[in-house]
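Posting this for the archive.
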Amino acid sequence: MSGSGAAKARWTRRVASALALLLVAGTGAAALPGPVGRMFGFAGVPLDAVSVVVQDVTKSRPLFAQHPGRPRNPASVMKLVTTFAALELLGPGYRWRTDAYLGGSLDDGVLHGDLILKGYGDPKITVEQWQAFMGTLRASGLSAVDGDLVLDRSHFASVAHDPAAFDGEPQKPYNVGPDALLVNLKTVKFLFAPSAAGDAVDLKVEPPLASIGVGAPPGIAAGDCGDWRATVGAVFVDRGVRAEATFAGRYPAACGEREWWVSLLDQPTYVHGMFDTYFRAAGGRFAGGWRNGAAPATARPFATLESPPLWDIVRDINKLSNNVMARQVFLTLATTNAPPPATTARAKEAVQQWLARRKLALPGLVLENGSGLSRRERISAGGLAQLLLAADASAVREEFASSLAVAAMDGTLKRRFQNGSVAGQALLKTGTLEGVRALAGYVIDAESRRFVVVAIVNHANADKVQAALEFLVQWVYRNGANWTPPR
């Protein structure tokens, strides 16, 4: 580098440092405590790539902060915006419906016409709930359907979804797109286990859909479990209306019982398969196909499936970081200020209007799908801290806080903080993408003082900062109440 180039680089660094100091000074907060800052350095991540805010919920200013106003990609921590907005806009007790209508006459249990299903965006219809729904249809007097299955998915706007667009992994369950009539998250579970005799592999598939052909199970193998998914030789071929799964390899007996979840089939084919499988299992008769259509505008539903309450749904979203469920909830928010069909643009408007009414200014906020499974979404650590402070003072405080993973106990934190005193004392949402690591939530110290903690790292070495993030949380638990910033 030339002398003039080096001088320019030094000047640029000095200006950046000065701006950073001004930003921190604007919050009235000190910079990171030395031990915390050094942990990020040990991970090979410069502090310029780190945003942190720590604040006692009873105080008006942060205890310390690092780049609090810089918008960054938060990964799944963005789910905090979606779930808090949902709890306040929809209410903790909100439930989604899936309605069944008769498109013809019902004579002696036989429907001479089509059965119409209308979905309203239920984020989590499990196999068990679907079986119960089929049981309700039978108990209500429906024993056979002579026509087809008509799917009304119009509550959400029809938008083309490419499951490979995010990371080239179209069969990963997290890449399933939102749908007003989403059933079982459109996934299939392959369950492997050594047979009772130990000389073969038992393979079970749930749900057992006729549109998915499954080959013979893999052979049994000795040795360590290791990367068992690589050894079973799985090949999944998905043609939308038909899929095949084959396993030409071997499964190590040492693995015991293992599960592999895969997204297969297109949305309507999957729903049709679920109806065909479980209506028959409930004793019903059906041999029809499917088509998209509309439910009657004024008719009364023949049967209805209700979801669990929203407060239960947001626990799955935040504790388990479920992207598909988060996207379903995000789209549902669109219906709080505009009639369906729900669109992403209207969902963004609903969130922005809610933030404005809440007087929560989140400069730099960029929403794409509300789940954090995005390269575009952005939020600042300072904005997240303000959101968490507002949630802590909200009427939905308990429902929101209880949706967060508990350190060393459940969700995405079950295997973290195992050896730390903060176990059971931190309620956090984590975020992970390539080049992104984040966490945000609450730390409750030994004297029951509550701190908001937010940390976002955007850097090529972000995958190396877990120890630094956990050190930050432990440090706040042990030192937050008594720390005095150096002068």
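The longest strand covers residues 97-107. Residues 100 and 117 are 5 Å apart (CA to CA).
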